[in-house]
Amino acid sequence: MFAIIDQTAFNHGKNRPLSLLELFSLGWDERHAILTRPQFDPTANAPANTWINTLSTPLQREVTQILTQGISLALRRPINTSRITVISSESNWENARININDAVRLLRTPLKILLENSRNDFHFLLQLAPPTQRQELNEFINKGWIEIEQAGGLGEMKTILEDLYTAPPSDISSHIHRLRLWVMFDRDSDAADRSQASAASNQVRSICERFKAQKPWPLDFFQLGRRSIENYIPLDALKAWQAERSGAEGTDRRRTVEAFAFLGKQSPSAKWQYNMKSGFYGDLSRATLTEIENQGRDLRATDVDPIFAPLDDASRQSLSHGFGKDIARLYKRHQTSWETSFEAEYNQGPSNQPQRLHLLSSIISRM
User: Rounded to whole angstroms, how far apart are CA atoms 211 and 217?
Assistant: First the structure.
C-alpha cells in the first residue's frame, strides 16, 4: 500500500510522535511505501524536514531512509496499488484520507485471502502464480503480510461477506477488514444445468460485486471459470497420478484418465464442468442412484447432464466415480514441475477468466 503523508500530519506529529513513528516503522521492511506530498526532498524547507530534525540522529537516518526507499518502492509496485493520504484531522474513508491512528491500524492489518479451503485452494493459488510471483507470494505469507482465511464452503463465505457488507460505518474493524480482503471461490455447477454456475456460487459473486462500489477502493475477487480448482489439473499430472498405482487400481486409473482426455477432445467446456472428485455418480439424485442399484444397470447417457453427450458408453462408465476426493493434493506436489502444462491448461479457457499475471497483481496491489 502507498501511504502518502500530508504535510499537516507532520505538524500533528510534533505532539504525538509515536503514532507517526509507528507509521514509518510499517514501511521499514518495504511492506508499504511511505511517501510525502509533495515528494520528499531532504533539502527542502518543509514540515516533513522540520519534524525529522526534532528526532535523534539515528531516527533521522532511519526515517530519511524509509522515505527515500518509499519512492523507489512505489515505482516497482503495480500502478493500481491501493493508496491513502495520511492526515491529522478526522478520517474520511470514502476519499482515502485517513488520520494517523486509523492509518496505522489499516497498514498494520495483513491482507486476508479468503478461500473455501485454506489448504488445497492455497496451493492452487500458488500454482496460478507465475514462478517469480509465486516466490514473492510465499515470502509475503511467511512474513505475515498476507494471511489465508478459510471460509469452509460457499455458504460460510457468503455469511462472512454479508456480515462485512452490512457492518455499520462506525465499525472501523469491519471497514478495515473489507479493505484488506481478496476473495477466490469455485464456480461450482447448477444441478439442473451443469453448464451454469451454481446458485450458491452466484450468490457469493453477487455479494462481491456489491463491494465493487465500496470506497475508497473496490473488492478484488476471482470466481473460477471452471467448476472447481481440480478442473485445472493438467493431463500430464493426471497421467503421473495414474502411474503411481499398478494392478487393478492402476488399470482403473488409466481408464479414468483416458476417458477424461477423450472428453476434453470432444468438448473442452464439458471437461471444465465435470465432477473431478466424485464423477457422474456424485451428481446423481438419490432417486437415480437407487434406481441404478435396484436394476443393477450401468450408467446411461440420460442419467447425466446433456453437456456430456459426446461420451461413449465405455468412457461414461470410466468417469462414473471420478478421481477421488484428494485429487487436489496434486497441486502441493507439482507446483514447479508442471509449470508449462498448467499454463497451457489454464490458457485453454474459458475466455472470460483473467490472465494469471493479472490475478496475482490484484493481490499484490492490495497488500
Answer: 9
